[in-house]
Specification:
Elements lengths: L1 E6 L6 H10 L6 E4 L2 E10 L2 E12 L4 E6 L7 H11 L6 H8 L17 H10 L5 H15 L1 E2 L2 H7 L5 E2 L3 H7 L1 H8 L3 H15 L11 H9 L6 H10 L12 H7 L4 H8 L6 H19 L2
Antiparallel strand pairs: 1-5, 2-3, 3-4, 4-5, 6-7
């Protein structure tokens, strides 16, 4: 097993970030146990495709996260560490972000925008999550991952323990499967399966790159050109896959409810006060909503 440590600037709202990931976890691909986030990874390296697993835990006394990963990922260490930085938004400067958010962040300073191991994965999650509940989306994602993902080597699976078995599929797997097969496995509508397949073809061909530092507007235009992808999905991908700190899915129903408005235009106008950190405001608004929901059902 390999071990590394990456630092961050405090404060870090670790439990809230873990809660965000836990709420959206795909069984078999990822899990949250105690203080740690664990998941299966698959990367294409010069030595070939490598599949393994990692665990990330907070070491608050050192203002760092500790990463443990399987030896099978030795050829992909730099890529894995970059992924950890994105998923846990370790480059965030809460001393700059939180003062702009003001009262919105006052009760929980240091909240991050959880990022992505892979931009394609976030786009798939966003498409499947359109207009359905999170639990329903998780079930569909699990079926697709079990059918098309990269299985964890039995040796690594034994070391990882119960609950981790497969990596999220590569875009090429969805592209090769075709829309009909995606629909059959995932129980998707014909339109949703067609959108997933079109996305996979664009990403697999590298005509569309969903990663930080890619040109923002051309990337958003590429997403919006795919039938079935609208502004909400594009902004969600920008927030979590492109690491754009000012992304804001103004059409989101929860955001509009939290802001007390009826339209996306009104939501955008109110959110302007938090620019250029509207992605962080989004995560806080979602958090406030879920806290209200929990209090209501307590």
């Amino acid at each position: 097993m390999l071990r590394f440590e990456l630092s961050y600037r405090p404060p870090y709202a670790w439990n809230a970030v873990l809660g965000f990931l836990e709420h959206r976890r795909i069984d078999g691909v990822e899990q949250v146990i105690g203080n740690a986030y664990r998941r299966v990874l698959m990367f294409d390296t010069p030595a070939g495709v490598r599949t393994g697993w990692m665990q990330v835990a907070n070491q608050s006394e050192r203002n760092a996260v500790e990463i443990a990963m399987s030896a099978s990922l030795a050829a992909a260490v730099p890529v894995v560490l970059d992924a950890v930085r994105r998923v846990f938004d370790l480059n965030c400067r809460p001393d700059i972000v939180d003062p702009v958010l003001g009262p919105l962040a006052a009760d929980l300073p240091g909240l991050r925008v959880p990022g992505a191991v892979d931009g394609f994965e976030i786009a798939v999650r966003a498409i499947i999550g359109q207009q359905i509940s999170v639990p329903h989306a998780r079930k569909i994602l699990m079926k697709l991952c079990d059918a098309f993902g990269g299985p964890l080597d039995p040796f690594d699976a034994a070391l990882a323990g119960e609950g981790l078995r497969v990596a999220f599929p590569a875009a090429s797997s969805f592209a090769g499967a075709g829309a009909g097969r995606l629909r059959e496995i995932g129980g998707l509508t014909q339109a949703r399966a067609a959108t997933l397949h079109a996305l996979a073809v664009e990403v697999a061909s590298e005509r569309l790159r969903l990663a930080p530092l890619e040109p923002l507007q051309p990337t958003l235009n590429g997403l919006l050109a795919i039938k079935g992808i609208g502004d909400w999905t594009a902004q969600y991908v920008a927030m979590r896959a492109l690491s754009w700190p000012d992304a804001f899915p103004a059409g989101d129903l929860i955001l509009r409810r939290q802001l007390g408005v009826d339209t996306a235009k009104q939501a955008s106008a109110l959110a302007a006060q938090w620019a250029p950190w509207r992605a962080y405001a989004t995560v806080h608004l979602w958090r406030h909503h879920h806290r209200k929901q929990e209090a209501r059902h307590a």
